[in-house]
Design brief:
The chain is built from seven helices and no strands. With 188 residues, the protein is mostly helical. The longest helix is centred in the middle third of the chain and has 35 residues. The two termini are 26 Å apart.
Length: 188
């Protein structure tokens, strides 16, 4: 008996731990977006006015949603890639390309985190306020470096997981001839 659910591929590299945080954040952010939008639609329908803060908060929540979703996608190794290049070739080539992609993702989001810290510092130092409701702008911009660091850390974790010897063995990849030959039921 294996510890894997029947639909999981037991040969795939181990997935990141503690993804429940990202999953719950996505659920909560989507619920908040739906409630804010629904309340604003009802208010517009019945009173011909709207909450002034809904657009600003909704845009902020959508940006955080994209960043949290990106962190989850990186941790699960489900980020966008060109399958023609990343899925063909030897196991060593696939491993190298996957690890290069994880390192480049980590580098990109590390640079984004560093640059966005400067943005947050400028927002705080110059006391910029948001255009819609006048709250300090750094309340919104501080989440960019935080989420960027989270994505960079998830990418580094993916890089480490992809370094395991069996991560890209031909018999471990669904759709390869070796996998089809070893997993196909015998026909008589």
């Amino acid at each position: 008996m294996t510890d894997f659910p029947p639909t999981a591929n037991p040969a795939s590299p181990p997935t990141a731990k503690a993804l429940a945080l990202e999953d719950w954040l996505v659920v909560l952010i989507m619920a908040a977006l739906a409630l804010i939008t629904f309340a604003n639609v009802l208010l517009r329908y019945f009173t011909d006015t709207s909450f002034a803060w809904t657009e600003e908060i909704s845009i902020f929540l959508m940006i955080v949603l994209a960043m949290v979703g990106g962190s989850s996608a990186v941790a699960r190794d489900q980020h966008i890639r060109i399958e023609f290049f990343s899925g063909n070739g030897s196991a060593q080539r696939r491993r190298r390309l996957a690890r290069l992609g994880a390192l480049m993702t980590a580098l990109l989001f590390t640079v984004l985190a560093v640059l966005s810290v400067r943005l947050v510092w400028d927002d705080w130092r110059y006391e910029e306020t948001s255009p819609g409701i006048g709250v300090p702008q750094w309340w919104y911009s501080m989440w960019l470096p935080i989420c960027s660091v989270a994505i960079a850390l998830r990418a580094l974790g993916l890089f480490v997981r992809q370094g395991h010897p069996a991560a890209f063995a031909p018999e471990m990849i669904e759709g390869t001839e070796a996998a089809e030959n070893t997993t196909a039921p015998a026909q008589t």
